[in-house]
Fold each of these.
Amino acid sequence: MQTSKFRNILSLLFCIVLITVLLSCGKDAAGEASTDKFLKCKLNGKAYNFNYNVNANDKPSEKEIHFVTISGWEKEDMITGFGIGLVVPNEGAKETTYSVAGSLSPELDGDYFIQNMKDGKIISTTVYSGGRSSETSFTLTITSLTKWGVKGTFSGKLKLSGGNTFINVTEGEFSAPYN
């Protein structure tokens, strides 16, 4: 009888440990399912992580994917963020490299944005864009396009909207699940 009680206690402890391990591995600090989701790059040589709420567009409803969007925020306050948008209307997005430098094709843009706050309210947004804007460039390499989401690398030269200040984007990487 003592052996049976001992086995029951060990079984219960094993189940508790197993559940704890599974739950802790399955969630990140924000309580979201953890996978390898991230969005990071260097802006003018300084490393940034836009890992809060990283996601791609909604899961495609068709076999051919006509657009890819990726975005993330630096912090939960959602003041600074980075986004990438690609539209491929005819042939669909593929695992390949897309580049644009101040022309209209392909429809590819990278954006670094900063929400300007006053008294706890957003009063404006500062945006640096690159790709189809003049004097800019943007390169996106899609390395994986699956049912889970999209992964890849990026780089470019972004220009302040309405200004003449530039930001160089280097060592960009992302892994973003579909919404």
Amino acid sequence: MAVSSGAKKALVSVGVLVCVGALLVGIGHWRAYDLISGDVVWHMAAEDNGDDAVVVRDRIYTYDNDRLTIRDLDSGKKVAEEYRDGTWAFVGDGGHVAVVDTGSIAMYARDGQELWHRTTDDLYQPIAINRGGMLDAITCSEESACVTAHFDASGQATHTSRKSTDLWTPAVIGVDTFEDHPSVRRVPTIAADIDPKKHAAFQVRDGEAYGPAVDVTDEEVAAQVGDLLVGMSRKDGTCHFAATRAGRRAWTTSTPCPDLGYPKVDVFADRIYVTNPSGDAYDVVTADLEGRRATSFRIKTGPTSENDRVRLSPTPDAIVLTLTDQIAGYSPTTGKRLWSQKLSRTSHDALDETKKLYPGVEVSGPVIDRYGNGPGSLATLAIGRDVPAYTHTYLDAGSGKKSAELAAPYGVSSLGLEDGRVLVLGDEDIWLVAG
């Protein structure tokens, strides 16, 4: 039977449509793979990670639901998993971990071996763990002054009174002065105390002041990194930074600055920031942790209302300003804008897809996480493949350039690492994403 020319054209059209459809589905699968696995260094199924993690050298520490988990950073494999009733876990620079609860302290080595366990009369909060595993902890009551305990490497304790009646801990890497207490946090190697009457902070060893004090405007304006204590004071329109390292004066530097009110302190491995909102701007005072230079400047937000998103986030290499419809990075030494990026309403309300929203923005370490609930039109073409609803686009805070992408379920938290990689924690998964 002869086939009419019209039928031939119809068959060709159908064939073309099938080929185009197959091509689009293939592109969709490629895009879905790229979002799910393209920038992933490793991915592990992991229950009860919690929202917090600490990374020290080549180890990842999480503590949630009374379970301490230690993983190898390069592979994601478990090094140790220990069940210990507790409230918080504290990690020192040497990788030692103290798990504390009301009435007990347990110390673990960097690979999870229990070194000692002691019962106590109260909840002691660790404030320092040195590289050899010695622990300084503190407990305070409203009726009396605080009491500190120094535990040696075997867990033997000596107790001393403490001048301050406040449970004072300065800012440390990963925890600013206003942040809620995470389930796992890093602590410095040398304990510090404060004399609020003299507005002075100082390092402590064996219950006594160790080295010279540093002046502070109040008990919040100080930070610790390893064995370095940095404080900032203000007098006659000048902000003075002073640092003590392991009991010795390390450096001082100063810069003209405005009155900062009740500022927030952020600290990283190489820099301290003191910031305060002031009208339609943020005042910033900052110094590198070698004491070479302190600077002060103002970053303007422009007119905003109480419904607008306005947040300033210091990072190791830039200061990130997040507004409702844009994000921008500023130099930590001059305050000049380095880059900016407009945001579009690319997300939608989870209950009303017709309601368009701006993407979420979170900043951690040197990384910006810009996320929204939609992997994009191409990935939706991946028939038969389950693509998580939220796409996380990671940006380098110093340049604003995209470094990686990840499609992940709702509610994951992203931790930017010093080398630009991202540790992503979910309810049932953990990822390391390339930077």
